[in-house]
Structure prediction request, 678 residues.
Amino acid sequence: MIMAIAFSVSYCTPGGKKKEKNNEKEFKVLTEQFADSKILRYQVPGFDSLSLRQKKLIYYLSQAALCGRDITWDQNYKFNLLIRKTLEAIYHGYSGDKKTEDFKKFEVYLKRIWFCNGIHHHYSTDKLIPGFSPVYFKTLVQGTKKEDLPMKNGQSLEQFLTELTRLIFDTSVAPKRLNLDPSQDLVLTSGANFYEGVNQQEVEKYYTDLKKADAKLKKDQKVSYGLNSKLIRENGKISEQTWKVGGLYSQAIVQIVSWLEKALTVAESPEQKTSIEKLISYYKTGDLATWDEYNIAWVKDDSRVDFVNGFIEVYGDPMAMKATWESVVNFKDIEATKRTQILSTNAQYFEDHSPVAPKYRKKKVKGVSAKVITVAQLGGDCYPTTPIGINLPNANWIRKEYGSKSVTMDNITYAYNQASLGNGFLEEFAYSQEEIDREKKYGHLAGNLTTDLHECLGHGSGQLKPGITGEALKNYHSAIEEARADLFALYYLDDPVMIQYGLIPDLEVAKAEYDSYMRNGLMTQLVRIQPGKNIEQAHMRDRALIAHWIYEKVRKDKTVEKVMKNGKTYFRINDYDKLREKFGELLNIIQRITSEGDYQAAKELVENYGVRVDPELHKEVLARYSKLNIAPYSGFINPVFTQVIKTDTIADIMISYPDDYSGQMLFYSKNYSFLPAR
Ligand code: ZN
Prediction:
């Protein structure tokens, strides 16, 4: 599972966390801004002190991370690659004037679809609307060499143009990548490329039947059904097309495997070697039982260099079954990891004292391995926008029996923090100077600890009733699961035990987090929603749900109070202890819903508190925000690793930090594009 995708609005504290990083003041974090997005760079401190073997491992894994890029694009929408290849051909080859306003708008559109790995907004999943007209698009296509355009055999330019114009400009064609409105057929109304020729009912029936058939054959039914395949109807028959060598996406997967095979030669430990071997075997066979074996091996491996590479998260599928391809290459930050080790070591304490019903607590919390990592490369769904923490594997039974790995991406949060210095956001929305000061003093620590608690303990806590699976909550699963982990973190942040463990100097840290969490859930996260739209994204629904549920319960006694000042809305917390109690109360409710797979209750909670937006407050927040001129979303440019060859052997791996976003995107399209346009 991914932890909150950080965005500038939650990082408003001054930096200065690490001295060594402060020395490199000249390092430019923010490189450019367009539409609602900004582009940042992240540093990889400590890379130079790794051994040559570890550097080689990072190099090979980074190559593997880049080779899957096209898979993510194709999964997001069937025509994404066709559109990208068309636009890039125009970008390179258009013979007309490239200095006009229209061409600049074309460039912005291309930058946006690079940013989103496709034509749908990465966060809202709405189709992006180009700022230029279909007429201008025609001019661009006609001004580009025909042989450079990804046209079908026998297709005329006219037909090609009609097809592309429809795909790009027609707002009724695939208006959303992900539709979670339960009153509609989720499969038919979502643009994501996980199903073809089948409706929601058929998908549900297919997998119910498959499980029944497996039960009869006494086959392993713990596997994550449907995780690595597209479900299609062909000649009237519904079947899975698996993403594997020799299957769908074979051309890209073959490349990934070849780099993984190189990584195998420099693996750091026997456990890591086993896990890479299992992953290769899984990519070759597509066998989901092998995928589980890989995950078990991966959990057991505690090497310094680590990575994620595969079909991992199911947020992109309205049925929460099919996983989007992603990769993160990283190595452990040994010093910072001491913080999370304290949490892991004491995991049982947290579980035993959690405010949920005893029957839904884990009797024995196993192997909650937590660490702070330094990211070295991002790929697939994690590039260019990235989570700030990951907790894997996702299969509940593996988490229960073997534990999970939880990571906080420190160099990424650091970059966010640096980029948000002095942007005025906190000053605009915080109620008092006291709040602002507290946030500046403790905000970064509070944010990091909340992430740690959410990842190390939150997701791994609790247990399901026998026979209940994670899929029971269907389209509400992600929001409920994130709320569960958030509430666990919020509840414990204010526990005196945190001081006892030496994690925080005093409970003011928790107050800083409570202020910003409630402010965000009730108000400031609305800056990411367009007027008239509902909240769709799982993490945003989670935050809205928690904040609104609590606000409704405590409005009368003013534990949390809405205050107007100079015509502006603020939320002030009057009783932090009472608020903590409420976090615990809601955690208990949400754990019960999860444990029992209570779909109806999940639906009511999410729909009543997590989806709708108060139009008046929304308008006000957007107006206040627009004055600050901050782009709410951040994406990252990857560092580049280069081999230093001396007498035919690799003598070293050098790291460099390019600052040209478009250049990197075009470089990837040229060198790491292995799938056809259609
Ligand atoms: Zn999470």
Observations:
- The CA atoms of residues 538 and 630 lie 23 Å apart.
- Residues 5-24 have pLDDT under 50 and may be disordered.
- Residues 1-3, 454, 459, 482, 485 surround zinc ion (CB under 6 Å).
